[in-house]
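Run: sequence + iron/sulfur cluster -> complex structure.
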Amino acid sequence: MCLGIPGQVVELRDGGLVPSGVVDFGGARREVCLAYTPDVGVGDYVVVHVGFAITKVDEAEAKRTYDALAAMHELGELEAMREADATLADLDALPSKVGPGIVA
Amino acid sequence: MKFLSEYRDPALAQALARRIRETATRQWTLMEVCGGQTHTIVRQGLDELLAGAVEMIHGPGCPVCVTPLEQIDRAVALATRDDVIFTSFGDMLRVPGSDCDLQQVRARGGQVRIVYSPLDALTIAERHPDKQVVFFAVGFETTAPANAMAVWQARMRGIRNFSVLVSHVTVPPAMEAILSAPDNRVQGFLAAGHVCAVMGWTEYEPIAARYRVPIVVTGFEPLDLLEGMLLCVEQLERGTHEVVNQYARAVTREGNAPAMRLIREVFELKDRQWRGIGTIPMSGLGLRPAYAEFDAERRFALEDIVASEPVECRAGAVLTGQLKPHQCPMFGTACTPERPMGAPMVSSEGACAAYYNYGRFRTARAAATAGAGT
Ligand code: SF4
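>> structure
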């Protein structure tokens, strides 16, 4: 549960309560909270855990970590992302089950 | 050996292992605290590779494993309610409660949803204002910043149908509890790199000094672990006991200051029960009074749900290093990953499941058979 996954910041988003951005994990992309790494910019590498960048790393370290996770079949963080996105989509798709009040 | 073929730099790994064996004049007993590291060590056979020089005890660092039975029962009670959408990290669904687990509640039609991030739970709450959305906030220092942010945002954004069932634990008090036990065997620690990425290692310094144990902040890859063991063994041979950072690539002494700030804003230290170990004073986090309205235990009056753990499960002894998983009489017979009796068999990061999954089961059986024959 505690291993993060490294990815590259490809987009910064402002306007929210706290800074966020889009991070690319070997092709898969997801919105990530950047509140704890306020100094990162597009192109930087971060280690992401449960949707939060917790530390900035250099490119070599990001690659090394990603490869090691892949070699160890430990890309669970990515699977969890996919599964969770399916959950959210599922909840949206079944409004009658969970009642009204859905906003897009 | 298995780990040579699976790891991409076998020569370097071999060289490190050789140096550890050359450095150690006796066998030293080290503990890795983190369940992710346990998984790697057992999977790659690092402990077997270093037998005679290093004995690894597998510590309590798997949040899935140490979440007390009582909190699982409370989660099950919440998930069973019609007005609740219960959200959780996927790992928690198969942890056995007294009667059933969350997965079974879901199979019976309960609204149990796996989320990747606590912020996903907040999104669900926003989209379903007619429901109570509860998030199971478990974990060590690595998930605390995320969970703190979800609660803080819920308050800032006025999302009142959101609450958290908190079962947060912190590493240093558990290390102290292990070190101060009269039968403690741990002589040095590998501290978890990702935990330290958040909290730094200043809190470890007084522990290293007080108990005279070297503590090495270590990454989770096989090479990191071997290097961490070497740095620990070198200190033990020299008689020093400092906190050393093997994982400088991602960790600084101060840790992540903004994350620590928000953790302290939302949470305060609290006595926590650890599954199989019992209550350790000030060993976890609970919501501060200012955030009490987001406390699911309060909102749903869950205090009445109490549970005691099955006596057959030796999780406490396993998690404190008194017993190796395969030495538990239930291991591989009454207790398997398919039908776990205790939490360390549930998560792949749990010591019992790691032993079971990576062939120690057979070793244990063979040893038992051989023992029975003599
Ligand atoms: S093998 Fe099963 S019963 Fe024994 S300590 Fe591990 S989890 Fe508990």
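>> summary
Chain B touches chain A through 59 residues (CB under 8 Å). Residues 315-369 of chain B form one domain.
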